[in-house]
């Protein structure tokens, strides 16, 4: 382990170079595929929509029958609806009433929008001259062409992807197996919400916070528990977890206190890659291996645990789930509050995004800034990234922000 602090980027790079991509796959139906990651690319088995159709409500006719110099009267031979097409073929001087998405009748290639025609009481219509042949129709492959690459392997399946798969008639897809995660909080001072507190005790907020963060990534933990500050029990539990989990996640016990046993046990059971990062909040973070299981030991302070998960654990899980693209996607906004601090660590402040009167994306800082104050996260909607070399940010300076809606959703 290096004696100097790793930068955030160095730590992320080492993590992603170390954690594996998945190999095991399974087939699931579309109803169970939300949030899963494709293991195979999808090529279109058919055209979509698959037939010539109307792009709007109107009247379908043969383009060669369009009037040239003056309005022309057409007899309406019938109607074509989506799912109930006109079965015949209109003759010259005839048209078919048609609705958006309906199959074009045989022999027609043009749809005249209903707003430009004049309807006679007996049902015939007058169509004006000067209209273009082939207008207002959709070809069979307007959306998707048979054989085209639709979704690449490594794509996470959200509602739009599931919709396009259904439009192709695909019922099942090959996806990567879910990541198996065991999650434990440590600390004799922790109690379950609802239990009475003794002096010096706290309710365990990290565990439900981290469970929820895992669930937003489509990960249901195999086991969730609270462990005492006792080295033998910790060692036995982590050894057992390593036999069943792809990733073990703990919170607390990674600093240098007398009861901070996690790093020592990790060194005993497996391999500690690093344990100190130039980040605020969250400098103590243990990353390594226990057998074949990836291990993250997050700090015990709630904000530190939250930030560490978003910055380090989330990209690792994305890669282990098989996502083609991993990592955070920052935006830029102007900071509404001047901010000063000592340099040396990349800092993640809590903020709220808004649009100023000039239409500029702007972020205001949300306090308190203590690594213990989880209320600041609950009041925020983004993280504000302060580079390690920065000492002062004047009001209005551009800063990177990480919106929560990109961190909490797949």
TrEMBL record:
Pfam families membership: MoCF_biosynth (PF00994), MoeA_C (PF03454), MoeA_N (PF03453)
One GO term of the biological process aspect: Mo-molybdopterin cofactor biosynthetic process
E.C. no: 2.10.1.1
CDD domains: MoeA (cd00887)
Pathway it works in: Cofactor biosynthesis; molybdopterin biosynthesis
SUPFAM superfamilies with a match to the protein in the record: MoeA C-terminal domain-like, MoeA N-terminal region -like, Molybdenum cofactor biosynthesis proteins
Any one Gene Ontology cellular component term annotated for this protein: cytosol
Annotated keywords: Magnesium, Metal-binding, Molybdenum, Molybdenum cofactor biosynthesis, Transferase
InterPro entries documented for this protein: MoaB/Mog-like_dom_sf, MoaB/Mog_dom, MoCF_biosynth_CS, MoeA-like, MoeA_C_domain_IV, MoeA_C_domain_IV_sf, MoeA_linker/N, MoeA_linker/N_sf
Family the entry assigns: Belongs to the MoeA family.
Functional note: Catalyzes the insertion of molybdate into adenylated molybdopterin with the concomitant release of AMP.
UniProt-listed PANTHER family: GEPHYRIN (PTHR10192:SF5), MOLYBDOPTERIN BIOSYNTHESIS PROTEIN (PTHR10192)
Protein name (database record): Molybdopterin molybdenumtransferase
Organism: Candidatus Methylacidithermus pantelleriae
Lineage: Bacteria, Pseudomonadati, Verrucomicrobiota, Methylacidiphilae, Methylacidiphilales
């Amino acid at each position: 382990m290096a004696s100097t602090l790793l930068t955030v980027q160095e730590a992320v790079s080492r993590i992603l170079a170390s954690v594996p991509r998945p190999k095991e796959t399974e087939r699931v139906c579309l109803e169970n595929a939300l949030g899963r990651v494709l293991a195979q690319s999808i090529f279109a088995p058919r055209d979509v929509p698959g037939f010539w159709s109307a792009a709007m409500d109107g009247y379908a006719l043969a383009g060669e029958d369009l009037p040239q110099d003056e309005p022309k009267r057409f007899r309406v031979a019938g109607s074509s609806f989506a799912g109930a097409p006109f079965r015949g073929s209109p003759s010259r001087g005839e048209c078919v009433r048609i609705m958006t998405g309906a199959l074009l009748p045989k022999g027609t290639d043009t749809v005249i929008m209903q707003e430009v025609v004049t309807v006679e009481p007996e049902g015939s219509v007058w169509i004006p001259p000067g209209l273009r042949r082939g207008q207002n129709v959709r070809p069979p492959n307007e959306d998707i062409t048979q054989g085209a690459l639709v979704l690449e392997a490594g794509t996470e399946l959200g509602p739009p992807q599931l919709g396009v798969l259904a439009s192709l008639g695909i019922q099942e897809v090959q996806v990567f197996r879910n990541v198996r995660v065991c999650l434990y909080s440590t600390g004799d001072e922790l109690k379950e919400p609802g239990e009475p507190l003794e002096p010096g005790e706290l309710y365990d907020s990290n565990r439900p916070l981290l469970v929820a963060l895992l669930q937003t990534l489509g990960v249901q933990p195999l086991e969730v528990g609270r462990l005492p500050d006792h080295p033998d029990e910790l060692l036995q539990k982590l050894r057992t977890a390593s036999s069943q989990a792809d990733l073990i996640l703990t919170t607390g016990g990674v600093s240098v206190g007398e009861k901070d046993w996690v790093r020592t046990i990790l060194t005993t059971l497996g391999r500690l890659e690093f344990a100190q990062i130039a980040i605020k909040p969250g400098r103590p973070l243990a990353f390594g291996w226990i057998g074949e299981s990836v291990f993250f030991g997050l700090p015990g302070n709630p904000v530190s645990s939250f930030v560490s998960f978003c910055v380090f654990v989330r990209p690792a899980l994305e890669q282990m789930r098989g996502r083609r693209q991993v990592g955070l996607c920052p935006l830029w906004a102007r900071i509404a509050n001047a901010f000063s601090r000592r340099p040396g660590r990349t800092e993640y402040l809590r903020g709220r995004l808004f649009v100023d009167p000039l239409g500029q994306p702007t972020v205001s800082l949300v306090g308190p800034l203590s690594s213990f104050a989880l209320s600041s996260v609950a009041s925020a909607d983004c993280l504000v990234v302060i580079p390690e070399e920065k000492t002062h940010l004047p009001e209005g300076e551009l800063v990177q922000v990480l919106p929560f809606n990109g961190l909490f959703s797949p």
